[in-house]
Structure formats: C-alpha cells, structure tokens
C-alpha cells in the first residue's frame, strides 16, 4: 500500500477502505508518512467529503493510535458530555455534579480555552489548589469511590488526532466536517465513553455558524456513534449570544455556584437541565426525558448537586472555602457597569465579539502559552428580545487595568444592536439528533 495511491483515490472521490485508512493514520502517527502527503489528503477530504463508514474508520484508527481508557470494570456505563465550545459556556460545572448526584458516575476529561471559547479546566483553576492533572490511577479511584472526576487528559489519547489537527490548522482544512467529527469522537472513544451527549453550538460565538452546518456535523457524529457501538445524542443549541450572564473564569464559577444553589440565570439553568436530562437517559438512569428532568431538578433544589460539586473540589485538592464563599475568588481591580445609551429592543448581542473581548482582557488565550487572568471578564445583564431604556444597566466590565477597561467598553458596546420593534427571544435549542 502507498500513501500517494490513497491520496489519489480520495482526490478522485473514491471510498477508502478500513485497511487504507488504518494504514494512512498509523503511518502518519509513526512519522512514516510526511506532513505534505497528509496535507494533500486532508484537502481532498475537505473538497470531496467522506461517507459515514469512512469517517467511522478514521475515528477508530485515530482512537487506537494511542492509549485507550477502559472504565468498564469501574462503572456499568461511562457517560460523557462534549460541547463544541461557546461564550459563557460553564455548563459542565453544573451538569456533571447534577448527574453524578443522581447516581450516574461521571468522568469528564476537559480541555483548556484557546481563542474566544473558554476552557473548563481554566475556570476550575480559579479555585486555589484544584488539581486538573490527575493520574490515570487517581481518575479511576475517584470515579470508583466518589462518582465524579473533572480532569485534563492524563493519557496519550488519540495522538494521531493531535498531529492531524495541528496540520489542519495551517493548511486551511479545519472546516472539514468529517475531520471535525472524527476529531471529537476519537477522543471520546479513546477516553472510554460508551454513551455521549454532544452539545453542538450554532451561531456567531460558535465554530458552526449556521444550522445546516451544525446539523450535518451532528448527524455524522451520531452515525459514528452507532457504527462504533456507542449511544450518541446531539443537541443543537444557540450561541448567538453568551450563555447565562458571566463570561470569564472566576465570574463563570460564581455563576455556576449560584445556579447549583437553585438560582442563576434562567437560560443557563434551563440549558443545564436539558443537557443533564439527556445524560441521565443515555446513561440508563431514566427511561424518559420527563423523569430525567425531574431527577435533575430535585438534585439541584435539594442541594445534592451542590454537595457533589463541593465534594469534587475537596477530592481534587481545591480550597473549598472558595466554593463556600465565592467572594474569595479572584477579583478584578477595575469594575465598571455600563448603561444603555438609547432605548429599544435588543436585536443582537454578538457572542463572538464578547468572547474575543474577554480574551483581550486576559480571560482567555490567543496562543497556547498565554497565561490566564482568572479575575477578568464581562457580565452581560440583558438578553436578545429584552426591552431596555436609556440608562438601563447593559453590562459590567471586570478589568485588570484602566486601559483594558477603556478598550473593552467600546468593543462590547459595539456587540449590541437595537430595534424599535419587538424582537423574539432566541431559542435555547434548535433540535435533537439521535
């Protein structure tokens, strides 16, 4: 078998076999197939696509290129959740303890933020001492005894995917739907997941900008799940405005804690309940979404979900006093509330502008080596569809310097668009694919 023949076959819209894809992925992972050939193949995939079967073969080949975490001896079914990334998306911090407190063990391997999409690990590290570098043995022991783990990758999961992603990033092939789907699913399968809920974001603050793209990606990931013996549900959710109010690490942790206490923004609470309900169903803890939703509501309202979050902080070395007293979390030196300079209905709150501004303030990374300022960020007080009057509080900036505050004020103000006529609220979810 030769790499060039596989490239030519895909260039000419041929369907690759399992053996051809495994040969190509293994050769690339071992350094036997050079970058320039993989780049040519990735462009052929971008232009000509892949079938569901081809994409599944690619997913499994990448998953098997490194370590595979087997949790079948620890829990009856390993349930995972994945978000494609958004602005103000602190869902994991509420959903995971909620689901775990319902008796369904959860092991979540999360990532760090890059670009305008925040990272779950960065948020939790607002709490001093919280460890995200657990070893595999520590992960297994916590999952077995406590039923909840939130950590970074301790294993070399799907290394071929990491190599391929780096190459896609510099060859204009990031947008390929089959390559996105196989990237997401290979890491989930390598991480041991048997049932997966995907939260696929749609809109200005998401990777998928429109519903058609999101639907195509979701259908493909669900198909990969079925063909690889996993149960997968994809939720298409809106990301044309920030989720909840808080954007920024410590600010988002505070909002998650508030939500776990039965408060928090209505849209964020509802989003968490929906995701948790689907996790409880795919994890076979509930037979219907209605029963699962009630389980999740009871877990939050009774305080069990909060108690599970608190235990997680303690179990992973965090100073729990920061969870008990969120006012101790990192606070920005400069805080300013900005009011609306006109009256009308909010037509648009550009999530991408909000996310990019928070990164410029220091809440995220433009490059992997950038350091995070956990204290800075933005609180958005209104939602699309709200009626606001001149002088109504619109957003609050939490900045490290006056210069940063000034720049952020102008940028965030430009994210708001007004209408003189009433505007419909944005939906939380568009559809469910399973």
Quick synopsis:
The chain is 45% helix and 15% strand. The chain is an alpha/beta fold and 434 residues long. The strands form four sheets. The chain has a four-stranded mixed β-sheet with strand order 1-4-5-13, with helices on both faces. A four-stranded antiparallel β-sheet has the order 6-9-11-7, sandwiched between helices.
The assigned CATH architecture of the largest domain is: 3-Layer(aba) Sandwich
Query: Given the helix and strand composition, which structural class is it?
Result: alpha/beta
Instruction: Please provide the count of β strands.
Output: 13
Q: Give the strand order, joined by hyphens, for the main sheet.
A: 1-4-5-13
SSE ordering: HHHHEHEHHEHHEHEEHHHHHEEHEEEHEE
- Point out poorly predicted stretches: none
CATH names the topology of the largest domain as Pyrimidine Nucleoside Phosphorylase, Chain A, domain 2
Number of helices: 17
At the fourth level of CATH, the homologous superfamily of the largest domain is Nucleoside phosphorylase/phosphoribosyltransferase catalytic domain
Total tally of structural domains: 3
Major sheet summary line: 4 strands, mixed
What radius of gyration results from the CA coordinates? 22 Å
By CATH reckoning, the class of the largest domain would read Alpha Beta
Strand residue content:
5-15%
Mean pLDDT: 94
Looking at the structure, what is the overall shape? globular
Helix coverage percent: 40-55%
Distance between the termini: 37 Å
């Amino acid at each position: 078998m030769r790499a060039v023949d596989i490239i030519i076959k895909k260039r000419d819209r041929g369907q690759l076999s399992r053996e051809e894809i495994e040969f190509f992925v293994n050769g690339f992972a071992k350094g036997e197939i050079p970058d320039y050939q993989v780049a040519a193949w990735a462009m052929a995939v971008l232009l000509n696509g892949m079938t569901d079967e081809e994409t599944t073969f690619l997913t499994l080949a990448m998953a098997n290129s490194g370590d595979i975490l087997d949790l079948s001896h620890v829990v009856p079914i390993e349930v995972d959740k994945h978000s494609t990334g958004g602005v103000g998306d602190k869902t994991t911090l509420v959903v995971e303890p909620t689901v775990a407190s319902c008796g369904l063990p959860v092991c979540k391997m999360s990532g760090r933020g890059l670009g305008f999409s925040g990272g779950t690990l960065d948020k939790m590290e607002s709490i001093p001492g919280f460890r995200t570098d657990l070893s595999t043995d520590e992960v297994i022991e916590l999952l077995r005894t406590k039923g909840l783990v939130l950590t970074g990758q301790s294993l070399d999961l799907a290394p071929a995917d990491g190599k391929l992603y780096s190459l896609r990033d510099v060859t204009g092939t990031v947008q390929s739907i089959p390559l996105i789907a196989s990237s997401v699913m290979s890491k989930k399968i390598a991480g041991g997941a048997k049932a997966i809920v995907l939260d696929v974001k749609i809109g200005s603050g998401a990777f998928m900008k429109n519903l058609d793209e999101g639907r195509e990606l979701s259908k493909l990931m669900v198909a990969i799940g079925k063909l690889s013996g996993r149960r997968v549900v994809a939720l298409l959710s809106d990301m044309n405005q920030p989720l909840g109010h808080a954007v920024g690490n410590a600010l988002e942790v505070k909002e998650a804690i508030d939500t776990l206490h039965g408060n928090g923004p209505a849209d964020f609470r509802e989003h968490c309940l929906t995701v948790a309900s689907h996790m409880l169903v795919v994890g076979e803890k509930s037979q219907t979404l209605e029963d699962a939703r009630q389980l999740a509501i009871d877990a939050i309202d009774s305080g069990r979900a909060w108690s599970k979050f608190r235990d997680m902080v303690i179990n992973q070395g965090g100073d729990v006093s920061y969870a008990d007293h969120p006012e101790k979390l990192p606070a920005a030196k400069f805080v300013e509330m900005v009011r609306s300079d006109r009256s009308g209905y909010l037509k648009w709150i550009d999530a991408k502008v909000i996310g990019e501004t928070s990164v410029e303030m220091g809440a995220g990374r433009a490059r992997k080596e950038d350091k995070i300022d956990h204290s800075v960020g933005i609180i958005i007080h209104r939602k699309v569809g709200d009626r606001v009057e001149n002088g109504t509080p619109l957003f609050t900036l939490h900045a490290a310097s006056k210069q940063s505050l000034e720049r952020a004020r102008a940028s965030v103000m430009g994210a708001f668009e007004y209408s003189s006529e009433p505007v419909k609220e944005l939906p939380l979810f568009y559809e469910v694919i399973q």
